[in-house]
Design a protein that fits this description.
4-stranded antiparallel β-sheet, alpha+beta, 303 residues
Length: 303
C-alpha cells in the first residue's frame, strides 16, 4: 500500500501586497504553520467532507480508490494562504500518484495558481502559490502579470533577515475573492486611482525589501504603514483589520498592515519588542498569535 504525503507552509505578506495580482513586487515570508495532505493509494475511497479543493486538484488528474487525510495548522480563512497551501500539498500528492514528479519551482507554483483560479473558482493573485511552494523569505517580482494575463514566471530573490514581526488574527473569516474582485474590476476598467495606488504599493514592495535587507526598521515601518493606508483608502481593509491595526499601533507596534486580503483575516505588526506587543494585545482580547519563520516550501515523502 503506497502512501504519499506533502505539506506546504502558510505565508504572510510583509510589504507590497496585493500588487502581485498586477505585475508588482511583494515581500513575503512563510509561517511555521503548515497544511498537509496524506493520500493512501489502492484502498477504499475515503474523501474529505468539503470536496472543493479535492475536486479542483483532480479535475485534470482524476484519482479514485484513495484515502485522503488533510491536516492544517494555518487558521482557516485567515489571510495566510492556508487553502492554497492545502491545494498545493494535495495537487503534489495527486501528481505523484499519476507517476509525475512535482518540484518546488515556478512551474508547479503556476500550476497551483491556475488550478485554484480556474478549477476552484478563487479570484486569487500569484503571491500565495509562489510562497507556499517555495517557502522562506522572498522578494517576488511579478512583472508581466495582470488579472487578465498570466505572463512569465515570477522572479524570486531569497532573503535572509531578522524577522521582528508578529502575526495577529482577527478571528473574522473571509474569502480572498470577495476582497480582490471589486478592485480587479476597477483596475481592468482603467480606474486611474486604483492603477496609481497599485503602482505605489509595488514601489513600496521594492523600498520595503531594501529596508529589510539593511535592517532599517524605521523606513520599513513607514513603507508598511503607507501600504496599509493605501489599501484602506480603496476599501480593501475592513472594519476588523482597521481596528486591529489601530490596536497594534496603540500597543507599541512601529507599523501594522494586513498580511493578506482584507475584510478580516490577519495583521502583520513590526515591533522592536514582540513579547511586550503580544502581551498588550492579549490584554485587549486578542488570542491568536504567530511569528513568521523562514521555513521550507513544499515537502514530499513517499512510503
Amino acid at each position: 500500500m503506497k502512501i504519499i504525503e506533502a505539506s506546504a507552509p502558510g505565508r504572510c505578506g510583509i510589504i507590497g501586497n496585493p500588487s502581485d495580482i498586477y505585475g508588482g513586487v511583494v515581500l513575503s515570508c512563510s509561517t511555521p504553520a503548515r497544511a498537509t495532505c496524506r493520500i493512501t493509494l489502492d484502498t477504499h475511497s475515503e474523501l474529505p467532507e468539503d470536496l472543493t479543493l479535492w475536486k479542483a486538484a483532480t479535475a485534470r488528474f482524476p484519482l479514485d480508490n484513495v484515502k485522503v487525510e488533510w491536516t492544517s495548522d494555518v487558521p482557516k480563512s485567515s489571510g495566510l494562504a492556508g487553502s492554497t497551501a492545502l491545494l498545493a500539498s494535495t495537487l503534489a500528492c495527486v501528481l505523484i500518484a499519476h507517476g509525475q514528479e512535482p518540484r518546488a519551482d515556478a512551474t508547479f507554483a503556476e500550476l497551483v495558481r491556475d488550478v485554484e483560479k480556474n478549477e476552484a473558482g478563487v479570484q486569487c493573485g500569484f503571491q500565495d502559490a509562489y510562497m507556499v511552494v517555495h517557502g522562506g523569505l522572498q522578494q517576488m517580482n511579478f512583472a508581466g502579470k495582470s488579472p487578465s494575463v498570466v505572463g512569465p514566471p515570477a522572479q524570486l530573490t531569497r532573503l535572509q533577515s531578522d524577522l521582528p514581526f508578529l502575526l495577529v488574527t482577527t478571528g473574522v473569516q473571509r474569502l480572498s475573492g470577495s476582497v480582490h474582485g471589486p478592485v480587479i474590476e476597477r483596475w481592468l476598467e482603467g480606474d486611474e486611482e486604483i492603477r496609481e495606488a497599485i503602482d505605489e504599493v509595488s514601489d513600496l514592495g521594492i523600498r520595503g525589501s531594501e529596508a529589510l535587507r539593511e535592517g532599517d526598521w524605521d523606513n520599513l515601518a513607514i513603507c508598511m504603514n503607507r501600504n496599509q493606508e493605501i489599501i484602506a483608502g480603496w476599501g480593501g481593509s475592513g472594519e476588523a483589520i482597521d481596528q486591529l491595526v489601530s490596536d497594534c499601533l496603540e500597543s507599541g507596534a512601529m507599523a501594522a498592515k494586513l498580511a493578506g486580503a482584507g475584510m478580516g483575516g490577519t495583521v502583520i505588526a513590526l515591533s522592536d519588542n514582540l513579547d511586550v506587543l503580544q502581551m498588550n494585545l492579549a490584554r485587549k482580547g486578542y488570542g491568536l498569535f504567530m511569528r513568521p519563520e523562514i521555513s521550507p516550501g513544499l515537502t514530499i515523502t513517499v512510503s
